[in-house]
Amino acid sequence: MPEVIFNGPAGRLEGRYQPSKEKSAPIAVILHPHPQFGGTMNNQIVYQLFYMFQKRGFTTLRFNFRGIGRSQGDFDHGAGELSDAASALDWVQSLHPDSKTCWVAGYSFGAWIGMQLLMRRPEIEGFMSIAPQPNTYDFSFLAPCPSSGLIINGEADKVAPEKDINGLVEKLKTQKGILITHRTVPGANHFFNGQVDTLMAECEDYLDRRLNGELVPEPAAKRIR
């Protein structure tokens, strides 16, 4: 798994990158939790997501947002971090011009950044938002959400209470043409302490089903003339 340094909007960004053997393989970008609360690309959940996509033949990248590890710059309350994520995707795409589709997976703060990236990049066909925080961050930009994806949270998450996540899910489920899958890990907190294996099993099941052509949104009903 090569260590990489690539150019971001505020200086160099540090990442870990694993290219697929297939030139046209999809790309997966994994986004880490809040930089000011210990979030890095080496977070256990980020690390496991990276390998989950890699094992399924994706070209995969995780990286440190600005100001973390060897990434240059300073924390920018989300705006700069979104630019970092866009630059990361640009960098992978420049190396893999035959890759036409992409997935984004984010955990906590990274879930918020990932959903914003989704709105900007039509080539993103799937997402995973793990423990998003609609009680802390504004998700109103998802109007409409352009891609199907998974939202998964812990039942006992006090950082992002389940009722807030349920509200976000219900709002997204009203949209036509996409399918939002919601999973809750029983008894899990925001960090999935002791429950990471259960979390990853849910993520793997979702990704495998999507790759098998399942979880397709229902076609829009034809209007009766």
TrEMBL record:
Keyword field contains Hydrolase: yes
Residue stretches making up the Xaa-Pro dipeptidyl-peptidase-like domain: 17-138
Pfam families: Peptidase_S15
Gene3D superfamilies, A to Z: alpha/beta hydrolase (3.40.50.1820)
Superkingdom, taxonomy of origin: Bacteria
Recorded GO MF terms: hydrolase activity
Name by which UniProt lists this protein: Alpha/beta hydrolase
Keyword set, alphabetical order: Hydrolase
